[in-house]
Amino acid sequence: MAHDPTSFPAVQPLEAHNRRLLENVHPPAWSNPQPKDRYHLVVVGAGTAGLVTAAIGAALGARVALIERALMGGDCLNVGCVPSKAILAAARAWHTARTAAERFSGPAAGGDGDFGAMMERMRRIRADLSPVDSAARFRDEVGADVFLGEARFVDEDAVEVDGQRLRFHRAVIATGGRAAVPPVEGLADAGYLTNETIFSLTERPEHLAVIGGGPIGCELAQAFVRFGARVTLIENGPRILPHDDADAAEIVAAALRRDGVRVLTDARVDSVAAAGAGKTVRVTRGGETTEIIASHLLVAAGRAPNVEGLGLDEAGVAFSEKGVEVDERMRTANPRIFAIGDVASRYKFTHAADAQARMVVRNALFYGRGNAEELVMPWCTYTSPELAHVGITPDQVAEAGDEVETITVPLEEVDRARLEGETEGFVRVHLKAGSDTLLGATIVAGHAGDLISQVTQAMTAGVGLGRLGDTIYPYPTTAEALRKAADRWRRGKLTPTARRAFDLFFRALR
User: Fold this and answer.
1) What are 442's strand-pairing partners?
2) 324-340 CB burial, b ≥16 within 10 A, e <16
3) By C-alpha distance, which of 46, 59, 34 is closest to 365?
4) Does the pLDDT at position 460 exceed 90?
5) Same domain (yes/no): 28, 142
C-alpha cells in the first residue's frame, strides 16, 4: 500500500531530513501484514501512549497489532515535544547571545541569526530521533504487527483497517488529540498555523499573532520573539496559564513582556480576515475594538480529542466532545476496550500518556486494578523561566483553607539563582497542616521541570518535606530551595511552648 508523502502538512518542506523522517514514521511503500486470527491486544494510535502500550504488550509475549493513520511517534516526535524543545533551546541561545553584554559584561553579539538554519537543525534532530518510533522497528524489533491506515471499530471485538478485519481480546484507543480551533468568524478562510504546521516554517514570521495563552502559546510566543519576530499573544481570560498559580503565571507574563511579547489578556478575537499576504485580527478588549495586522497567525487555544471516524458507537464505546469516557482503570463502556492519553485523559502530556500506558497493559491483559486517578502527575511549561507544578491545585489550596500550610522560598534567597542572575521565581510547597506531608508544589525557575521531579518522587514514595530537607544538596544549586523550605517548616515547629522547654534545658546546663 503506497502513501503520498505530501498528504502530511506537518512534515514540510520535503527535503532530505523530512524524507528521512517519513521513511521511518510513515514509509511511503509500506505494506500491511496479513492479520492474525485474533490478537491479544490491538492498539489504535502510535503516539506515545500507543507505542509504549504496544512495546510492553509485545515484550510480555502478547500478540499485538499497532495501527496508525498518520505519523508513528504521534504529536510528541513530529509536532510537539521534540520540535518545540529544539527551537526553544535555540531561542534561549539566541537570547543569551544578545543579552550577555548587559547581564554579564560579556562580548556584544551583533547581527541577526539564521532562522532557516535553526529550523533545519530541528528537522535534522527530529529525523535522527525517529528510528526509535519507526514502523520498521516496531515490526522487526518489538514484534508487533504494524498497520498503516484508518482504523474503524466494526464490532465490540473487532476493528477494520485497510479493508482487513482485526479481531481482539482487548483493545486500547490511543488516538491522541489535535489543536482545538475556536469558532471565530473568518478564521478558516484566512488560514492559520497550529502546532501541527508551525514547525514547517522555513522563514521567520515578521509578526506572529498567537491566539491562546496556555503552555503552547506562551512557549512559542517567547521563542519567536527571541528569534526577532514581533509577537502578539491574545488570551481570552484574565491571565495567561490559568491552571497555574496566579503569581507564578505573572512571573512568566512579565518575562514574556520583557522579551518583547505584547501580551493582551481579557481579549476576545471577534474575526480574522486575509490582508494581502497576512491576516487582520479584530480584537475587543475593555470595550474597545482594535485590529492587529499580522503576517502569521498561530492558534493555540487548547486541544480536541481524536474521536471522529473510529466507529465508537459500533463498539459500544461512550464518548463526547471531551473525549472517550473511561473509569479509573481507563476502561471504556465496552469492557474489552480501554482508552489512554490525550483522547481520554485530562492530562495532555507525553509523560502522562507514558504512565497510563504502563498501567493499562496490566489492567487490560492481567486484570490489574491500577487507578489512573492515583498517579502523581507533574507538568511543566518550558518558558524562561520554566513553570512546573505537581499535586494540589491553587483552587484546591484556597478551598482547603487552614487545612493546608504553604511555604514559599523566593529565588532571591537562593545563592545559585543570584549567581546566575535568575532570581525571578520561587519554590512553593503545600503541606498537610500540622505535618510535613507534601500535597503539592509549584516551582518557577530556570530548570523548574527538573526540580519538580524531586517533589514528585517524594510524593510518590510518601516521603515528607522533613526527609526531603535531610538530603544533602551540592552547593550552590537551585535545588537548595527545597532544603530551605524544609528549614522553614522546622522553624515553624518551634512553638512558644517548645521554646520555653529549650530555655529550661539550656538553663539546666549552666
Assistant:
1) 389, 428
2) bebeebbbbebebbbbb
3) 59
4) yes
5) yes
List C-alpha distances in Å: 329 to 39, 349, 356: 21, 18, 9
Given 323, 345, 374, the domain boundary residue is 374
For all residues of the chain together, what is the average pLDDT?
Answer: 95
User: Beta partners for 279?
Assistant: 274, 294
Please report whether residue 86 resides in a domain: no
- pLDDT band for 313, please (50, 70, 90 cuts): very high
CATH number of the domain to which 193 belongs = 3.50.50.60
Confidence of residue 385 (pLDDT cuts 50, 70, 90): very high
Task: Decide if 92 is inside a domain.
Answer: no
Indicate if 214 and 167 belong to the same structural domain.
no
Calculate what percentage of the chain has a pLDDT beyond 70.
Answer: 98
Domain membership flag for residue 96: no
- Angle between helical axes of 480-492 and 448-461 (0-180°, round to 10): 50
| Contact in structure between 51 and 73 (CB atoms under 8 Å) | yes
Burial per residue of 289-302, b for 16 or more beta-carbon CB atoms within 10 angstroms, e otherwise: eeebebbbbbbbbe
- Say if CB 169 and CB 336 are below 8 A apart: yes
147, 112 contact by CB (below 8 A):
no
Q: Are residues 410 and 469 in the same domain?
A: yes
Tell me the residue range of the domain where 294 lies.
187-301
Model confidence band, residue 4 (pLDDT cutoffs 50, 70, 90): low
Residues 283 and 211 in one domain: yes
Residues 245 and 282 in one domain: yes
- The reply to whether 340 falls in a domain is yes
What pLDDT is stored for residue 10 in this prediction? 85
213 pLDDT higher than 70: yes
Radius of gyration of the chain (CA): 25
pLDDT recorded at residue 148: 98
Which residue, 350, 374, 398, sits at the end of a domain? Answer: 374
What residues have CB less than 8 Å from 263, skipping those under 6 apart? 213, 233, 235, 240, 253, 256, 257
**What Å distances lie between residue 189 and 268, 280, 401, CA to CA?**
19, 12, 49
Mean pLDDT of 317-342: 98
Sign of CA dihedral 164, 170, 176, 180: positive
pLDDT given at position 3: 60
What's the DSSP call for residue 331? Answer: B
Are residues 277 and 215 located together in one domain of the fold?
Answer: yes
Whole-model pTM: value is: 0.94
| Residue 105 identity (one-letter amino acid) | S
- How many domains, the chain? 3
Same domain, 321 and 460: no
